[in-house]
Amino acid sequence: MTISACSRSAARGDIELSSCPDILTILDSNWEAGVAIDLKAVEQLATDQSSLKAAAGLAKPAKWSGVGSSPDGALIWGECAGSGANPYRVMADLRDLGNKCTCPSRKFPCKHVLGLLWLNAEAIVPFAPADTPAWVSDWLGRRRGTSAAKPASTAAPAGEKDVRAARAVEPEVVEDPKDAARREAQSAKRNEETERAILDALDALEQWIGDQLRMGLSGFIDDATARCRRIAARLVDGKAAVLAGRIDELPSRLLALAAGDRPSGAVVELGKLVLLARAFRATPRDAEIRRVVATTETRETVLADPQALRVNAQWEVLAEQVQTRRDGLVSQTTWLLNLAASGPRFAMLLDFFPASAGRRGSVFAPGERFQGELVFYPSQQPLRALLVRRDAAEAMLNSEWPAPDMALGEALTRPLLAEPWIVEIPLLLPRGRIARDDSGGTWWRAADGTATLPVAGNAEGLLAGTELMRTAAIWSGNRLAILAAQSPWGRIGGHD
Amino acid sequence: MTETADAEAIFEAMGAVVTRWTMGSTAAPVASFWRTELGDDPVEAELRLLALSGQFLGAIVTAEPPPVLRVLPDIPTLGLPTVHEALRPLVRRILATSKDGASRTEFIHFLVARGWTTHPADWIPDASDEDAPDIYAAWRDWSASAASGETTRRQAGDQLTAENWEDFWPAARKAALIMLRQRDPSAARALLEAKLGSESADARLRLLSLLSERLSGDDVAFLEGLAANDRAPKVKALATSMLARLGHGPAAGEDIAELAGYFSVKTKGLLRRSRVVQIESPKTPAQWQRRKALLDGTDLMSFSGALGLGPQDLIDAWDWNVDPAADTGLIKLIVETGTDAQLAQAAGIVSEHDATGLIVALAPRLTPADRARFASARLRAHGIGFDMARVIAGAAARLDDLLSAPAGAKLLAELRRDDAKPSDHVAEFQALGLLASRTAAQQTLQRLTAAGLLQGDPRLDMLRLNAALDDNGEKP
Fold it and tell me: Does residue A130 sit within a domain?
């Protein structure tokens, strides 16, 4: 087995390094010389030249935050801005080059791991000795199962790789103006075709909604999963993939309601779809509406948009929601609370990855606070955002959440004026408390008695046994899902 | 919208609209107030009505709370502080990796022994968690009140009387009774005499076991009453066992004579002055079973009497390590029916032998100081592992210099092996963390990291917590 194949297999946990004397020699000599890793090892670890090339692009300080190492230098870690809203958490054990990244890449090691090793090998950023973060320890704990000896991989090593070539900057190709014009014309034609396809799909959707009313909502509720799947498939064909995902999830939202509430729940859900279809027809080029029907702008587009709102503030991680959807994607939503006096109160970092990519590590720990810059997707009500920069953690003295920005009644309805089709509204609730009814239902009740809202789930334990000074929750039109709360006992997570 | 339409009218009409759609009928005819907005095309009117109704129901209508809502009382603060915020993530990880209830209970007891409790967002005992330390009684009762839906706070504290017995939740009552027994044993017994009869069999058993503390001759009459008259066999057995500890075993019957037949008392030594209990090994499996049954059914006083010895003489003269089953039977008798002095005597003798299992059996009745002493001795002289030492030592041990014991040297040697795996020795590391004093935990961490373990290695979580946790507990 070659050194590079050996190192790859070892890093993956497929083999014991003791069976690879070649790479062990390199690692041992590095280690004894006090050098954690050199670029040669990065080169050998890479699966192919393109990984190495991508890693070279990531070996820049601006791409990284929270870089650190264990005091003995054996473990290194960092957070790398990827293509998603959440950064990727990257970690490596320099003793055996074991590594882990939270990105969904199928390459192993991915470019982020190689980038981190590269940063370390060339000391591009200082790896300050620090306490091992919990997420690195968690990974170490999970490595237990994979370190048992397994047959060595027999995969042939990829072609030759060269760090110098990866570093080389390719000259910019000067484009022929005629080609550019042709490509623009093609792009415009494609956009038009897409728009036509979406409009056709929305016609089909309205037709389908009308059919559900004619056939009776009672039958729709009973057969919602199959019926929604069929129209969702039609919408996917019609390039309205985001809307298709929403309709695929409609039955589960409906079934979460009490049986008696489902007919009116179906009216609300289907009514919102009609509104959304009409809004798209009125302004098919509106990025905000397109985002909830067809596609979302890329990270690069949002970052390049001078109109996009950028907010540099202190943020608290309220919760992370990971949900496997019916369309085979896993959605990872991180809810952030802006601790500043003004500005958008909430931010939502939303990423999708295929369920087949396996379990993905959490990016943030609930309750964690950080100073950072977010860029919001352009919207009348900025909520979905991307993390641009996260500064090194510092002591956050102010532990109090800000007061709600508006009265509760207004907070519940105002977002619907701008986007009547939205399903979830994040809320910061005033002082209140959990109460129970005789049938075991859970309610949040304002301390001043002016509002009482039903709560999803049971809200057990401490959440139900103390005053809630502030509560962050998601209102879905009929239930509150509590994300976190502040209490005399400190912060309480919604699932604590 | 038609001028006269208001929210109330729309709300009233919504019932009919939703009902019609549920049945598959058109609904526009019953929404006349939106006639203008809906237009003349019947298909389009239904869709427009759907959009308007959906928005009305989603934005204006929220579920009406029932007239009666119950708010649970505040979770009370406990007698010990909760662990510092900075250590809570570590506590949560240890709780999450405690795979079974027993290891979680050990960890909770460890925290209490060091003067701390968990944060209620991290762990609250269930109402039925009898293994939870008594300091958590108020939280157990809160859990009970949450489960029962009762919202009024009940009595707490140590002023338990027959009159206010019912005002206490069970865990608080138990905690109050323990305090009363320590302060005034007779008053505690008198209270049980008055109230025990009205409790369930399980509760009677739990409450009666509290009399083990400061058990004395004053309790004999009460225990005899229970041994003779209680409805539950387990309560009777416990009362009988307690009586035996006080030297009031049941009258010797035929069974005890049969049991004595399996043993004989011989003299030994030059002057034939010292005695030894010689064990006549049973010859058939049926005889083994019979001897075990006879040992299970007697008490130390009766057994020693049947051999013509006092209990202390029997323990002294026993021929240990010849017949493990007989050793186990005698130790069981001592644990269940022996006095504290007899127990200490047996522990002293057994600790001289290579009989860790017997020490483990005796441990629950030993004082925390004795448990720590025996654990330390067996670690150093008999080469037991840390996990076994933890079972002997209990939660309150604070042992020093653990890695210099044979188990420590073995652990260090195994960590250096080429085929060492990151999943090795998880239980040993956990036990190390529970056994060590704070200073020893800090030193052990240094030595283990010097031996090549990563500081962030999750196997070191318990040691790291111990090293970081101020030791404010009572020292044994």
Answer: yes
Q: How far is CA A70 from CA A134, A140, B454, in A?
A: 12, 13, 8
Contacts of B23 in chain A (CB under 8 A): 216, 218
Query: Which of A213, A425, A434 is the best residue to mutate to test the B interface, defined by the most B CB atoms within 10 Å of its own CB?
Result: A213
What is the DSSP-derived secondary structure letter of residue B318? B
CA distance A436 to chain B (A): 5
Q: Positive or negative, the Cα torsion across B131, B137, B140, B141?
A: positive
Write the burial class of residue B453 (CB in 10 Å: 0-12 exposed, 13-18 middle, 19+ buried): buried
Q: A155 pLDDT exceeds 50? A: no
- A409-433 mean pLDDT: 93
- Tell whether ipTM is more than 0.90: no
Pairwise CB contact (< 8 Å): B46 & A215:
no
Taking only Cα atoms into account, the Rg of chain B, rounded to an integer number of angstroms, comes to 33
Same domain, A7 and A49: yes
B419 and A18 within 8 Å at the Cβ level: the answer is: yes
Taking alpha carbons only, the member of B93, B163, B171 closest to residue B128 is B171
- Cβ pair A464:B146 closer than 8 A: yes
Closest chain B residue to the Cα of A261, Cα to Cα? B63
Q: Look at residue B191 and give its three-state secondary structure.
A: helix
What total number of domains does chain A contain? 4
Is A315 found in the same domain as A413?
Answer: no
* Token output for B411: 């652990």
DSSP-derived letter for residue A480 is E
As given in the structure block, the two tokens for residue B340 are 């504290």
Q: Do B61 and A462 touch (CB under 8 A)?
A: no
With 70 as the cut, is the pLDDT of residue B252 above it?
no
The residue segments making up the domain with residue A146 are: 3-167
- Read off the CATH number of the domain in which A324 is found: 2.40.50
* One domain, residues A140 and A28: yes
Cβ atoms of B164 and B155 within 8 Å: the answer is yes
Confidence of residue A359 (pLDDT cuts 50, 70, 90): low
Q: Average pLDDT of B363-374?
A: 92
> For residue B475, which of B400, B397, B367, B389 has the smallest C-alpha distance?
B397
A248, A423, A243, A256: which is closest to A328 by C-alpha?
A248
